[in-house]
Amino acid sequence: MTAVIFIAPFHLPVTMRFVHAVAALPNVRLGLISQEPLERVGPELRRRLAAYERVADALDVGHLEGAVKAVAGRLGGVDRLLGTLEQLQVQLGQLRDRLGIEGMGAEASRNFRDKARMKDALQRAGVPCARHRRITSTGEGWAFALDVGYPLILKPPDSAAAKGTFRVTDAETLQHALAALRPSPERPAVAEEFVTGRERSFETVTIRGKPVWFSSTLYDPPPLHVLENPWIQWTVLMPREEDTEDTRLARPHALAALQALGMGTGLSHMEWFRRDRPGGSPVAISEVGARPPGAQIVSINSYAHGVDFYERWARLVVFDQWDAPPRKYAAGAAFFRGQGKVRPGARVVAVHGLAEAQRELGDLVVDVKLPQVGQPRAESYEGEGYAILRHPDTDVVARALRRLISTVRVELG
Question: Where are the transmembrane segments (predicted)?
């Protein structure tokens, strides 16, 4: 039996899909560590757990170390220590190092989590990325702006999903960003050249550092634009074609980036820009995460390939096994986001266009979470709901996604 400990600080729906996938594997004894009480675990999953430990702070490595030792004692050891949350990756590496558990250690985890450290490593490896600088004072921020010019990006070194990221277009917005981030030696920030282009993702499966599979998606519009405009509805598209001009451009840089950063076994997520400009690299790497992608990309892969990618991920990280069939469909997600005055306590008061969307596009929908009247305004960039579409023709899915976000409107009040 393989002893696995999964750390899920919060029982988020996507996180628990990964937990369920590991729990369903044959010959696995699973322990779960969380801040949530055991009573919030569904009865089916609870029956599959060999151990459960609740901690006060599941992002604190000190709290987690005692919990991992306790659960390992009940499991008879621990072979794999897992977690999918971006903010947990360094702590997982620290625990693996301290307790002698196989997997990515703290040094490699920091390469992925600290964005300035990441880009330093990418530059040393010759991987194209934005000019950047770690800044520890407001003066250094102003100096970077003088060197690089506007626009530029300021963000924490451990940002995730573009949260806490500022687009700086002039001296006034730079002053605002620096006041919000307050960079210091203890809490530095990262300043970056603002890269323009069409934003893509690139996912890679590696086993002990060797790439064995990849996929790519297209964002419309880019995630930072989505975060800056909470009313914008957006899409993610995975073409049916596995070998495209995008993948041919990005793949060598993605593999070089993963090698430079120290990726081991897992599913990684890279965001990059395609820059159609003369005289420069057509690729600029934005960020790389050593964990599964968000934005429903794992589910999109499941529908595009006709297999459960959560189960495939579980086999990958527990048994070092990977098997994915050829892609059968194009697939994509449309995210529905509330419009109206954003105020404390805002809720969905109406959802418009659903009947029309159902008539036109219902036969393409394979998964849906519709916004519900009365639900609170979502804090996530995924918004109040989504729909996943699938069809053998990429153009059909692309047109349907655009039509969907122009037809459905979520009203807040």
Answer: none
pLDDT of residue 285: 92
Whether residue 223 is preceded by a cis peptide bond, meaning omega within 30 degrees of 0, is: no
d(CA 240, CA 238): 7
137-181: pLDDT as tens digits: 999 999 999 988 999 989 887 765 556 789 899 999 999 999 999
229: exposed, middle or buried (Cβ count in 10 Å: 0-12, 13-18, 19+): exposed
Q: Is the whole-model pTM more than 0.85?
A: yes
Query: What Rg, from alpha-carbon coordinates, does the chain have?
Result: 22
